[in-house]
Sequence to fold (112 residues):
Amino acid sequence: MAFQVEITPIAEAQIQQAYRWYRERNPEFADRWFRGLMNAIATLHEKPQRCALAVEHEIFPEEVRQLLYGKAKNVYRVLFTIRNATVYALYIRHSAQTPLTLNDLEELEGGV
Fold:
């Protein structure tokens, strides 16, 4: 079964923020990073269940999984959920960031 993949506004904002950060430091890398991330997210249209549960899955009312993208110090976690035939990319987090908490979720939902 093929799934539709949608990126939430919060995840889009997080992608843009990371892209701008990379762009200020290394524009060529930023463009490669962005294309690679978007291609990785697009792979969720097939077998999104292949990805492990996110460490934060217990604070969400539904199952949340993570797709890892990147290498070495530049690994990002794409937190997503599956609803019917759609995969929703909820949050994009650098692997060095601490796991989301309920307070983080409230701030993100209210602040972005």
Remarks:
- The longest strand covers residues 86-94.
- The chain has a mean pLDDT of 92.
- Strands lie at 4-7, 65-69, 76-83, 86-94.
